[in-house]
């Protein structure tokens, strides 16, 4: 029997690998018309739109049920239905007004809420609508504004004031509608178009002989796709809502999709999509670009931007969700100033309606409001911002050691090397292949000599083998996801063959899972090993849409359909927890965990990458819009497989990809098992040297990246930022997604992503000078500028008024740079000023939370360069940490764009609390079109100190 199982496992793996060599199989995944509730939702919207003013609204709020106490409004909405279904369906409404001016709208169904329904097939599933997504997604930000009050109430509506001055909400009774107002303008409207849908519970009624159905119930009670049938014991229960953003032309977010940053319309027309954006985490092999098709993760958070304003909507639902986007068309003959509006239609298969409105008023406030709710990205360990080298698969510990030595031989920095599934014994996680990894500690010790790390893959599918202790423990304790009957562990197929899945929703299973990372339980594993969670959508090779059946049961008897999109997050959260506990109390180090599947809140414990891309120019170009979308949706630690996972990139593509990858927040080279070996040192010259330069540039700018991540961990600002975030009053840049800014550094990046291109155009959003990072050529004037970009050059500009901190010593890893000196580059603006921030801590522990860090402000006011602490009370800073940095100095100060009269300056005076001294200043006249540059070499100024350089 075991031999047969092994053969089947090999067959499944072989079939999967054959599938991997082809483009995505669209027939494996549903379209909206094949997803019963999406089809019903769209058809309902079409009927309402076609009827126009003649449509009879189905939903009405009962005015006499309204009650507002301590920031919470409760009321009852009634849905009108056929008399045979009772005539009215009671829908309890709860609106929460929060202290940060966020408003939350929750709508439930009384019968399901009270359990007054019957399930089909003797199912053990819960009767309620799923209402526990907040347990996983939310961490705070839900404090009520107890001062919220009713301004007025009449026969048609109620107006409420809450939050900041000028923040109001108007609730219309019939048709039921909610309008959010800021400073006298309507910013968003829920149910403006009457698309609200809550499919109420009703028993299945068998037709009598000769009776014909009045509506199409073909997908109400069970639904088949790809040879699998979903039993749907609760019947139809989808929800839908239209959300309109009046005057907002651009909407962004709702990743993950291989599409543009500014979301396209989805109802057809030239250049638009025919399908809605789908949010249903799935294992999509070799996905296509420019598509609303679902991918590996889902964050149902959307932003709308117009000149001077940004607002957001967070749709807290972890079930399959589709989102239509359309835009109102202005009449070209009209003389009015009416702006284009964006309409969205959200449809989820199950759950309560739970929507947050985030009023902004700008992107920074929106991200802070969203972070209040779901948390910010964890501050990553510094090594994880370096370069990661991976492939499926390095075949042995000797192979790893050889790759490690070759990076040193070719003088290329890197920090992490990765192991895919073949390192295990027979695809059993927490084991090592005894033939090829018989001494894994020797491999880890060699990496540790250069302060490098190892990442190993551990997936949620556990090999179904009674002799495998982890599978035995999991099943005997009941920690696996159950089948639809709730009695047996669900069995499906993945890399090990027959497998069971850890239930990350089970708190006892989570406790057990975390214990597996203890170094006593994970043999031959050291503290410099970190974890990669793949296939956690979950991927099930023989399941519907290559995932788990929706009628499987999780902890608490919730159906998988209810929790599908958060299942991957629950798993990587458990992994992160295990890594925290691994080191023991008081010795915790920041873990690095990579996940493929994610949900709102995943940023708290993991990084992500964009999955199975291709070695093509189209996928290189697609990566940045995807990564930008992740960043503005609260998950900035994002990247794409450099070089493309599938296929073999030609040298030019390979080189341009490393230049792009140097500006991915998560920078990893990766390749499929069938791809040729392509470690960066294997490419021929001149490509090898150009790739080496890209790697070195990444390490030179690590202070910029780390400072940007520190801010992201504090207030949720994206690490790489699109134009609409940085320049909210410049709508001309709102559609740009192939160039961006890095943190607060002023670095403007426009990677080359087209074959044979040696020149590109960069959009400048203002009239400040922008300096070429390499040669200080000056670009000035709002609009598009041509930038020379031969193969060896990355179009990289620095905006005047910003300071770029960097480290110029070439090292083999980030850890070896810890005490290296800094160079500060000041790009001077039109007013002759410049400045910026630098954050530094130990890069590996959590001691920054108790003050072990420095955060310095360096400013140039036209006469002096001043170093001071940035908004940090002295008592918070740990003096022991500051003392540990006493020998870390600024070795060079570069001022770009100084005036001509600086040519006569020969020295500067440096002053700190210990005294003052003179230092030489070197002036270089810029040729035509290039900036003047002044350099102060070795000013002997301490990075952690307060000092002044008088110029």
From TrEMBL:
Gene3D superfamilies: Glycosidases (3.20.20.80), glycosyl hydrolase (family 31) (2.60.40.1760), Golgi alpha-mannosidase II (2.60.40.1180). Residues 92-324 form the Glycoside hydrolase family 31 N-terminal domain. Residues 378-708 form the Glycoside hydrolase family 31 TIM barrel domain. Residues 716-803 form the Glycosyl hydrolase family 31 C-terminal domain. One of its GO terms (biological process) is N-glycan processing. It is found in: Endoplasmic reticulum. The keyword Protein biosynthesis does not apply. GO terms for cellular component: glucosidase II complex. Its EC number is 3.2.1.20. Residues 1-23 form the signal peptide. It catalyses: Hydrolysis of terminal, non-reducing (1->4)-linked alpha-D-glucose residues with release of alpha-D-glucose. The keyword Hydrolase applies. Its main location: endoplasmic reticulum. Pathway: Glycan metabolism; N-glycan metabolism. Keywords: Endoplasmic reticulum, Glycoprotein, Glycosidase, Hydrolase, Signal. CDD domains: GH31_GANC_GANAB_alpha, GH31_N. GO terms for molecular function: alpha-1,4-glucosidase activity; carbohydrate binding. It is an enzyme of class 3 (hydrolase). Belongs to the glycosyl hydrolase 31 family. This is alpha-glucosidase. It comes from Pyronema omphalodes (strain CBS 100304).
């Amino acid at each position: 029997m075991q031999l047969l199982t092994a053969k089947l496992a090999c067959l499944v793996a072989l079939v999967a690998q054959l599938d991997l060599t082809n483009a995505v199989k669209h027939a494996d995944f549903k379209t909206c018309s094949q997803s019963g509730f999406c089809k019903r939702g769209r058809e309902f919207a079409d009927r309402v739109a076609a009827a126009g003013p003649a449509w009879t609204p189905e939903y009405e709020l009962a005015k006499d049920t309204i009650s507002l106490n301590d920031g919470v409004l409760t009321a009852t909405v009634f849905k009108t239905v056929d008399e045979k279904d009772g005539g009215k369906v009671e829908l309890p409404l709860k609106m929460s007004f929060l202290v940060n001016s966020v408003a939350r709208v929750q709508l439930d169904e009384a019968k399901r809420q009270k359990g007054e329904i019957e399930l089909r097939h003797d199912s053990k599933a819960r009767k309620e609508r799923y209402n526990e997504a907040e347990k996983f997604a939310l961490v705070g930000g839900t404090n009520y504004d107890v001062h919220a009050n009713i301004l007025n109430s009449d026969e048609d509506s109620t107006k409420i004031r809450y939050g900041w001055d000028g923040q109001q909400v108007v609730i219309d009774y019939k048709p039921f509608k909610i309008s959010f107002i800021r400073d006298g303008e309507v910013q968003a409207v829920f149910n403006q178009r009457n698309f609200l849908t809550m499919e109420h519970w009703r028993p299945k009624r068998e037709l009598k002989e000769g009776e014909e159905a009045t509506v199409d119930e073909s997908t109400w009670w069970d639904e088949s796709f790809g040879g699998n049938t979903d039993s749907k014991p609760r019947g139809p229960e989808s929800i839908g809502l239209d959300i309109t953003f009046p005057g907002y032309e651009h909407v962004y977010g709702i990743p993950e999709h291989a599409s543009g940053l500014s979301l396209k319309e989805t109802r057809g027309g030239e250049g638009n999509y025919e399908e809605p954006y789908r949010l249903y985490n799935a294992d999509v092999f070799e996905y296509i670009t420019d598509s609303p098709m679902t991918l590996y993760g889902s964050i149902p958070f959307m932003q709308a931007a117009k000149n001077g304003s940004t607002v957001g909507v967070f749709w807290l639902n972890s079930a399959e969700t589709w989102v239509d986007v359309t835009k109102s068309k202005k009449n070209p003959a009209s003389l009015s100033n009416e702006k284009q509006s964006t309409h969205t239609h959200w449809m989820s298969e199950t759950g309560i309606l739970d929507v947050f409105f985030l009023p902004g008023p700008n992107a920074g406030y929106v991200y802070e409001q969203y972070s209040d709710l779901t948390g910010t990205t964890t501050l990553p360990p510094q090594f994880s911002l370096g370069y990661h080298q991976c492939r499926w698969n390095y075949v042995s510990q000797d192979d790893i050691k050889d790759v490690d030595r070759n990076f040193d031989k070719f003088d290329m920095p890197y920090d992490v090397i990765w192991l895919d599934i073949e390192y295990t014994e027979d695809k059993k996680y927490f084991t090592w292949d005894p033939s090829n990894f018989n001494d894994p500690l020797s491999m880890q010790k060699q990496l540790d000599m250069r302060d490098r790390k190892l990442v190993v893959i551990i997936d949620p599918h556990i090999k179904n083998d009674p002799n495998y202790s982890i599978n035995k423990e999991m099943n005997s304790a009941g920690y696996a996801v159950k089948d639809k009957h709730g009695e047996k562990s669900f069995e499906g197929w993945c890399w090990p063959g027959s497998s069971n899945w850890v239930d990350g929703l089970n708190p006892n299973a989570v406790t057990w899972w975390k214990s597996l990372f203890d170094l006593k339980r994970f043999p031959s594993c050291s503290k410099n090993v970190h974890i990669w969670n793949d296939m956690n959508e979950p991927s099930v090779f023989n399941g519907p849409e290559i995932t788990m059946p929706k009628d499987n049961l999780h902890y608490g008897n919730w159906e998988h359909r209810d929790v599908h999109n958060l299942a991957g997050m629950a798993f990587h959260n458990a992994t992160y927890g295990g890594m925290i506990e691994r080191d023991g109390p008081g010795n915790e180090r920041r873990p690095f965990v990579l996940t493929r599947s994610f949900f709102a809140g995943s940023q708290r414990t993991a990084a992500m990458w964009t999955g199975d891309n291709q070695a093509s120019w189209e996928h290189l170009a697609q990566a940045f819009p995807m990564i930008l979308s992740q960043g503005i949706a609260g998950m900035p630690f994002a990247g794409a497989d450099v070089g493309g996972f599938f296929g073999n990139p030609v040298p030019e593509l390979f080189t341009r990809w490393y230049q792009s990858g140097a500006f991915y927040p998560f920078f990893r080279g990766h390749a499929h098992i069938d791809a040729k070996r392509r470690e960066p040192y294997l490419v021929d010259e001149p490509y090898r040297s150009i790739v080496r330069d890209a790697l070195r540039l990444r390490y030179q700018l690590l202070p910029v990246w780390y400072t940007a991540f520190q801010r992201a961990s504090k207030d949720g600002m994206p690490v790489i930022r699109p134009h609409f975030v940085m320049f909210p009053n410049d709508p001309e840049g709102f559609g740009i997604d192939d160039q961006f800014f890095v943190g607060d550094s002023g670095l403007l990046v426009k990677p080359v992503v087209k074959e044979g291109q040696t020149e590109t155009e960069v959009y400048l959003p203002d009239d400040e000078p922008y300096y070429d990072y390499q040669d200080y050529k000056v670009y000035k004037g709002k609009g598009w500028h041509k930038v020379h970009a031969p193969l060896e050059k990355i179009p990289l500009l620095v905006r005047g008024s910003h300071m770029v901190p960097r480290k110029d010593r070439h090292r083999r890893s980030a850890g070896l740079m810890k005490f290296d000196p800094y160079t500060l580059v000041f790009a001077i603006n039109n007013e002759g000023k410049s400045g910026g921030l630098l954050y530094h801590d130990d890069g590996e522990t959590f001691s920054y939370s108790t003050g072990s860090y420095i955060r310095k402000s360096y400013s140039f006011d036209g006469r002096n360069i001043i170093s001071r602490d940035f908004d940090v009370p002295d008592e918070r800073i740990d003096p022991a940490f500051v003392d540990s940095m006493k020998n870390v100095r600024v070795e060079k100060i570069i001022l770009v764009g100084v005036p001509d009269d600086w040519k006569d300056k020969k020295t500067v005076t440096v002053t700190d609390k210990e005294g003052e001294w003179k230092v030489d200043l070197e002036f270089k006249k810029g040729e035509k079109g290039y900036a003047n540059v002044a350099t102060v070499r070795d000013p002997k100024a301490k990075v952690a100190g307060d000092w002044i350089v008088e110029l």
